[in-house]
Amino acid sequence: MSDTPYIFDVAGAANFEQLVIENSFHKPVLVDFWAEWCAPCKALMPLLAQIAEGYRGELLLAKVDCDAQQDIVARFGIRSLPTVVLFKNGQPVDGFAGAQPESAIRAMLQPHVAEPPAPQADLLQSAQTLFTDGRIADAEYQLKQLLGEDNQNAAALILYARCLAERGELGEAQTVLDAVPGDEHKQALAGARAQLAFLRQAADLPEVASLKTRLAQNPEDDEAVYQLAVQQLARQQHEAALEGLLRLFVRNRNYADGLPHKTLLQVFELLGNDHPLVTAYRRKLYQAIY
């Protein structure tokens, strides 16, 4: 018996009815007819197992020892080994005799078997890419799939909260962030909290056009510079915000009890240490301080 639930040995006709015929109404079942004395069978078996495991439940693999299951062999007229038969909806629909390369086996399966679900790591990476590209709804859809399988996935919860925040669901985003387990993703969590704080701040500030008008009239209006930077952060215009905050820090580092410096550090948390903007502006900030 295999360690995976997708692969099993058939033990008798009644067992075949249950494991192959009945299961095939729900998922395609690949039946491997083999024998201990058959060298090609032994070469083919691990390849079939690898393929079945790769489908992660979208394909089942049943192994029939032909020496032990003569009734089943006679029922299906198996005359050479190895023989592999694909069952769907209670009936054989395709198959092959003799050892086959992996490409041929996959080509045979392709019309009958659904593509396996993406691994969680792939889903998370895909959602992150979608979020970065501004496709918030698509990212959120993938994250819901992932969290449906594992609602304790901290990285997925953090990114899901950021999606909610971008849609204006600030209270729900806060609830999700508060539920993130453990402290493995401290930096990402801090970044998500920073994003949420910027969005909340921006909601109570003057509009961008109004702030730009004030700055056109008085470029040294520190309050307008800071508030515009927050509005830009809320809109993910990170480079413009960082440039404004740095200029404000250089001109008036004590503005509002050192708020430009504190906010720059929050933006660094938001973007992460590996972001090129963080590398560049961390260096500029260091030069401004020293």
Descriptive account of the structure:
This protein is an alpha/beta fold. The chain folds into three domains: 7-109, Glutaredoxin, CATH 3.40.30; 120-182, Serine Threonine Protein Phosphatase 5, Tetratricopeptide repeat, CATH 1.25.40; 205-289, Tetratricopeptide repeat domain (Serine Threonine Protein Phosphatase 5, Tetratricopeptide repeat, Alpha Horseshoe). Helix content is 59%, strand content 10%. It has a five-stranded mixed beta sheet, sandwiched between helices. Helix 9 crosses helix 13 and helix 11 packs antiparallel against helix 12 (238-251). The longest helix has 18 residues, at 186-203. It is rod-shaped. The N and C termini lie far apart (68 Å). The model has no long low-confidence stretch (mean pLDDT 92).
Labels describing this entry:
290 residues, alpha/beta, Glutaredoxin, Serine Threonine Protein Phosphatase 5, Tetratricopeptide repeat, 3 domains, 5-stranded mixed beta sheet, 14 helices, 5 strands
